[in-house]
Amino acid sequence: MSGVAQDISLSIAAEEKLHASNMQLQHSNAELESFNRVASHDLQEPLRKTQMFISRIESTELDNLSDKGRVYFQKVVNAASRMQSLVMNLLTYSRIDSKHEDFELIDLNEVLEKVKEDLSSTIESTGAIIKSEDLPKLGGVSYQLEQLLNNLISNALKYKVADVKPSITIQAEKVHSKQIPENFF
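and the corresponding structure tokens:
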């Protein structure tokens, strides 16, 4: 009679640890989804009121505003619209998975114009010059590409050399897959 004995206690412990980590990750994801729903709902209510007052002012008082008042009012309208977009993007972002099912064809020129409009006061106050060539259309998530360009331009404006007007050039280049490192994710 012969027998083989193998200690599998380490394997069982590793499996239990992995299972516990998976359960914790599922719990965290559920909490994040719940937070996103609550946060977006809580943000939408004051936003709806703001938009209601905007429409009331627009329909009854807009003619009484000075030219400067109309400019300020338009900035309020744009800010409320931007806030609504951010809330919707928060919800969209919480539902994005890594399967690329949420990808759509995005015109980066349009995204750049939107970002420049959102950052217009900072661009004006710094005297920045933003140049770009014709940017491509590519598959992606609109909100993430907007966030990317917004962060890049914001950082360029924020960390500029003192007393120097920033000059930002945005360009894109298609590269062959062989030029991308193998470990690039």
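(Above: one complete record from the training split.) Helices lie at 9-60, 67-95, 108-118, 120-126, 142-158.
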